[in-house]
Amino acid sequence: MTHRIAVIPGDGIGQEVTPAAVEVLDALDIEFDFVEGDAGDATKAETGEALPQDTRELARGADATLFGAAGETAADVILPLREVVGSFANVRPAVSYPGLDAVQPDTDLVFIRENTEGVYSGIESEIADGVTTLTRVITEDASRDIAEFGFEYAETNGYDDVTIAHKANVMRETDGLFLETAEAVAAERDAEYNTALMDALAMHLITHPEDYGVVICPNLAGDMLSDLAAGLVGGLGLLPSANVGAENALFEPVHGSAPDIAGEGVANPTAMILSAAMMLDHLGYGEAGDRVREATEAVLDEGPRTPDLGGDGSTEEVTAAIVERL
Amino acid sequence: MTHRIAVIPGDGIGQEVTPAAVEVLDALDIEFDFVEGDAGDATKAETGEALPQDTRELARGADATLFGAAGETAADVILPLREVVGSFANVRPAVSYPGLDAVQPDTDLVFIRENTEGVYSGIESEIADGVTTLTRVITEDASRDIAEFGFEYAETNGYDDVTIAHKANVMRETDGLFLETAEAVAAERDAEYNTALMDALAMHLITHPEDYGVVICPNLAGDMLSDLAAGLVGGLGLLPSANVGAENALFEPVHGSAPDIAGEGVANPTAMILSAAMMLDHLGYGEAGDRVREATEAVLDEGPRTPDLGGDGSTEEVTAAIVERL
Ligand SMILES: CC(C)[C@H](C(=O)O)[C@@H](O)C(=O)O
Ligand SMILES: CC(C)[C@H](C(=O)O)[C@@H](O)C(=O)O
User: Which 101-160 residues of chain A touch chain B by CB within 8 A?
Assistant: First the structure.
């Protein structure tokens, strides 16, 4: 069976790291049909739309989508794409690799970020001159879905620690509902968990990341906390992510289009290749996913490395080294 | 002229660190009239209210207020207290001290956190079964006030770097207004600045705190980012804060009531004593404020230190050592 994969490189280093991931996938014994779609700043300049209708259709119709990065238009591309694939869970692992200069070398975290609501509702207005409002939405259904996904993920992947992040002391109704629903899910599953105010959690994750495993978060808290974790493990160049829906999914690095280094051939392909490994898991090729992760980790350990990790390797050299080790 | 200072120790270690700060203030040659007020969990248990009316009046009528910490009722105490003193700016310095085991020893940051709006509006409801909303409010007036305060603070305190934190790519109207207003203030003052998406900023602050100085933030972003900075410099036990209004102000440590160590006499008084130093500055005793900071820094460097900093000193020993060095 051939899997149809939508490939959307986007802008900047998305154009460099996406082909790298495809090269790695091509080196495996799995039949993929890669179909490329356009999105991002350049696409908007050409067509007037950052995410044209045919790219949406491509993602909707594919078995999975690989997305690179977008520039100024990032929100106009990634938020609708997450919706198109119906993803409710954003899975963001942050792991320190041996030999890399991490702020906290003992980090092994996975953020399970609610992917549909919170301040991402898009409901904003200027209700009077100089007075604007945004409606933050939290529903029991979405909170239940993300909590079930999070506890299931922890179980399947061998994480003992589950933390529910929230700010229910201030956002009493909304994060109150999020927290209460997640705690109810834990009780139904008879699962252990902790809860943490997201501000205090930000501090503790920095000083004691080893105390945490899976962190279930509302949308914006997950956005910030996962970037924070990127800081702990040595940068955004390493963090993959999966946007998981009931029937479809989208895989993307946590990093952006990095215009400062785009076009120089030195972008770190790790985050994108590890995103492709998450796609392999999702499509049922967990063993191939492991092979890609092991090869990537070996290359992180022994080099070549790209400049963001202190090396002088190119995107191509790193990718070739990973392919060689598969 | 005698200054009337409302002293509200609150719960837990608030009962230990607040007297420590008063002891330090008492050792200076300044006339203070300290009047104590009740607030917090214990007060609620006794009176039914976490922040009784007479404590509010006390804070409103004082020249400044020192607040320790509160437990479960923290939000019911601190949020109304910030309102009572009319504070629009929450000033949170985060500095690494030599000799302490900081995650990032080169940190010298000051968060200027908007203190009245954002998701702290308190406007929430359950609009349907299992569907809750919160109205996040951002106004031009409050954004202008905090930006002016932030740029002024940077100038007065010799910080070259000012960063405006926001998430205007997602919260387009609300953080859009915040960002646009802050940029307009910078332009009027002919001040240099950078802007940063708060998620990316969370990462960069961890890997390169030395690149930042003053960070002007919306309310919740400031809440998270300042706790993150506490993680960088060695914990919440070190971070003071000032809630500044036009005519009144409230000074409090960033830490909470720490029920796990309360009553043991080992709470770190540093954050509270440095908060008192910020109060001295505010009341026009900048020189006395400097004396307190220098004495505190010397004791941080040479000990005694409380257990959170790896020492075995008590709150009293640390306080006595600071007083001795004044
Ligand atoms: C680009 C932006 C809309 C996006 C988000 O906020 O989700 C990004 O920060 C991310 O984390 O994927
Ligand atoms: C206790 C809570 C309401 C408060 C806040 O969110 O402002 C606290 O976290 C702080 O930072 O002072």
Answer: 103-104, 119-120, 124-126, 129-141
Model pTM above 0.90: yes
Taking the CA of residue A199 as reference, the ligand 2 atom at the shortest distance is 9
Contacts of B272 (CB under 8 A, 6+ apart): B17, B18, B20, B21, B66, B68, B240, B252, B253
Q: Give tens-digit pLDDT for B177-228.
A: 999 999 999 999 999 999 999 999 999 999 999 999 999 999 999 999 999 9
Token pair, residue B236, equals 């919440």
User: Which ligand is closest to the CA of B230, given by its number?
Assistant: 2
**Ligand 1 atom nearest B200 alpha carbon:** 9
Q: Distance between CA atoms of B92 and B217, rounded to whole angstroms?
A: 11
DSSP assignment of B55-118 equals HHHHHHHSSEEEEEE-STTHHHHHHHHHHHTTEEEEEEEEEPPTTS--SSTT-EEEEEEE-S-B
Contact A231 B207 (CB under 8 A): yes
Q: CB of A270 within 8 A of CB of B238? A: no
Which residues between 153 and 212 in chain A have a beta carbon less than 8 angstroms from any beta carbon of chain B?
167, 169-174, 176-177, 198-200, 202-207
d(CA B249, CA B58): 12
Element spanning A132, H or E: strand A131-139
